[in-house]
From TrEMBL:
Name under which the protein is recorded: Diaminobutyrate--2-oxoglutarate transaminase
Pathway: Amine and polyamine biosynthesis; ectoine biosynthesis; L-ectoine from L-aspartate 4-semialdehyde: step 1/3
Family in the record: Belongs to the class-III pyridoxal-phosphate-dependent aminotransferase family.
Gene3D superfamilies: Aspartate Aminotransferase, domain 1 (3.90.1150.10), Type I PLP-dependent aspartate aminotransferase-like (Major domain) (3.40.640.10)
Biological process according to GO: ectoine biosynthetic process
Stored InterPro entries: Aminotrans_3 (IPR005814), Aminotrans_3_PPA_site (IPR049704), Dat (IPR004637), Ectoine_EctB (IPR012773), PyrdxlP-dep_Trfase (IPR015424), PyrdxlP-dep_Trfase_major (IPR015421), PyrdxlP-dep_Trfase_small (IPR015422)
Pfam families: Aminotran_3
GO MF, one example: diaminobutyrate-pyruvate transaminase activity
Top enzyme class: transferase
Lineage of the species this protein comes from: Bacteria, Pseudomonadati, Pseudomonadota, Betaproteobacteria, Rhodocyclales
Organism listed in the record: Thauera terpenica 58Eu
Keyword line: Aminotransferase, Pyridoxal phosphate, Transferase
Keyword Ion transport among UniProt keywords: no
Length: 424
């Protein structure tokens, strides 16, 4: 029995699927204690959009630490925070015509979601929040209440209340617009749905199985919420920071949320950092009304500011869309190997392949790990193989990982060896 099995809680999860002790990492690669290298298509569940130990971000951090830059300030002012706010405004918000106030709620995504829900209820004076089927917003009680996964919800141990769950885009089939149902409920006093304080939405449900909301659906949702005075919260924690190509996942739809939550890749280096972007008229907090110890994590401000240099032009965005084309073409080919009922979906560099046999995704993930590739599963039955390679991965590395996925699928479905490696 090793140290982890002897002393660490049984709640641990990812280590059971990827049983290695990792010691170092660089770019798209992780190395374990025995010196074996693994290509990373997981990236810390989307935390490492820019890969492991990116040089420009690492050097900024090391320089700050070596000059004894202050590391912790709660919500007191610091140069590191000021520089991040200024750069985020100049590089991200102003070019997109966006104007938000910044709230640093605590170190993780679920902290950002809790703050967003709490503020929406305070501002509107209403209690109900609408979430969606298969959504995932975090593991604290408020975030769990708007999460769809029954297994995660059951872990709360108490009733999860003051929320309603509605069908996500496509949940009722491709021919059904689920917002028809939402609008009917809002317009009928007999529906039993109280006017919500907020709607919280992921434009791409990552943990839920790489479920993609269409542009038209998102635009209609924005119109409905605006017309009824409902706060629209976009949870961009996993699919923001360039994961779908543009910095914010909602940009393609041309909508402006009332509140946006960010975390994961925001720091650019795996350091905990969360941010709530709030329309100025909604920033009605009293001083100290919502707080948290680690909302002044200056090393994370430093790395996040350095990461913003990657967004001063459109090179990274264009690279993501180019890699998206490679992934989509190759996954479509792999789907034909797995059978007609395997489907591919995603946006940018979050892509998934869903198998008709729900157990196949987990088997493919395990087979990939044996071949030196880390790739996770998603969906209510873990039926989707979910690809989250770094945005900066080299094309050759990307194609190598896709080769490993294809080889793994072929081995499991006993298909003939492929004739054309890296057809894309």
């Amino acid at each position: 029995m090793n140290t982890f099995e002897q002393y660490e809680s049984e709640v641990r999860g990812y280590c059971r699927n990827f049983p290695a002790i990792f010691s170092s990492a660089k770019g798209a690669w992780m190395t374990d204690a025995d010196g074996r290298r693994y290509l990373d298509f997981f990236c810390g569940a989307g935390v490492l959009n820019y890969g492991h130990n990116p040089d420009r971000i690492k050097q900024a951090l090391l320089g700050y630490l070596m000059r004894d830059g202050i590391t912790h300030t709660l919500d007191m002012y610091s140069e590191a925070k000021e520089r991040f706010i200024d750069q985020f405004n100049e590089v991200i918000l102003k070019p997109r015509g966006l104007h938000y106030k910044f709230q640093f709620p605590g170190p993780t995504g679920t902290n950002a979601v809790e703050a967003a829900l709490k503020l929406a209820r305070k501002v509107t004076g209403r209690e109900q929040v609408v979430g969606f089927t298969n959504a995932f917003h975090g593991m604290t009680l408020g975030a769990l209440a708007v999460t769809g996964n029954g297994f995660k919800r059951a872990g709360a141990g108490v009733p999860l209340s003051h929320t309603a769950s509605l069908p996500f885009d496509g949940f009722m089939g491709p021919e059904s617009d689920t917002l028809d149902y939402f609008e009917m409920m809002l317009n009928d006093d007999g529906s039993g749905l109280d006017l919500p304080a907020a709607v919280i939405i992921e434009t791409v449900q990552a943990e839920g199985g790489v479920n993609v909301a269409s542009v038209a659906w998102l635009q209609r949702l924005r119109e409905i919420t605006a017309r009824h005075g409902i706060v629209l919260i976009v949870d961009d924690i996993q699919v923001g920071c360039g994961r779908t190509g543009k910095f914010f996942s909602f940009e393609e739809a041309g909508i402006v949320p009332d509140i946006v939550t960010l975390s994961k890749s925001l720091s650019g280096y795996g350091l905990p950092l969360a941010l709530v972007l709030i329309k100025p008229e909604l920033d009605q907090w009293a001083p100290g009304e919502h707080n948290g110890t680690f909302r002044g994590h200056c090393p994370a401000f430093v790395t996040a500011t350095a990461a913003l240099s990657l967004w001063k032009d459109d090179q990274l965005e264009r690279a993501v869309f180019a890699k998206q084309a490679i992934i989509e073409k190759r996954l479509a080919h792999i789907a034909t190997i797995a059978g007609a009922e395997a489907t591919v979906r995603g946006r940018g560099m979050i892509q998934g392949i869903e198998f008709a046999d729900p157990s196949l995704a987990g088997k493919v993930s395990a087979a990939c790990f044996e071949r030196g590739l880390i790739v996770e599963t998603a969906g209510i039955d873990d039926q989707v193989l979910k690809l989250l390679p770094s945005l900066t991965i080299e094309d050759s590395e990307l194609k190598l990982g896709l080769d490993i996925i294809e080889d793994s699928v072929r081995a499991l479905v006993k298909a003939e060896p492929r004739e054309l490696r890296s057809a894309a």
